[in-house]
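FORM 7B: Structural annotation worksheet

SECTION A. Query
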Amino acid sequence: MLKTEHEIIVLSEENDDTLGGRLSSALEAAGISAETLANRLGVRQETVVAWESDRSEPRPSRLVDIAGILGVSPMWLMTGAGEGPGELNDERALEAVKIELGRLQSAYQEIGRLIETTSRQIEKLDHHIKLRNLTRDVTH
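SECTION B. Predicted structure
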């Protein structure tokens, strides 16, 4: 939209003058759906849709995650100033990949802990069942 203020011409896109509008633009530019973003963030798709429609806003730490995934600066998402879609430089791309790797490593470690815990539970239950069966055999 073209606006004139005191003989200064300001170009802006109506979609990009809110956080939700910028989020929608960045999703589109990155070729990422709201559902995919929601899955990557661990939130419901309805939450992302609410952000896009400006019914709610993500908390600051979530905003940083969103920016990393979409390859834009958190400042651009909040204000429109800074690196927007298509302005991704190598350093920001590297940072986004590092963030994603960190998430994957955390998930990997958690899965390892869950496997270990489950293995110990199986061992305990197996031992308990063997003892119970041994006790039955001795008493019969």
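SECTION C. Observations
The two ends are 90 Å apart (CA to CA). The chain is about 70% helix and 5% strand.

SECTION D. Sign-off
Analyst initials: ____
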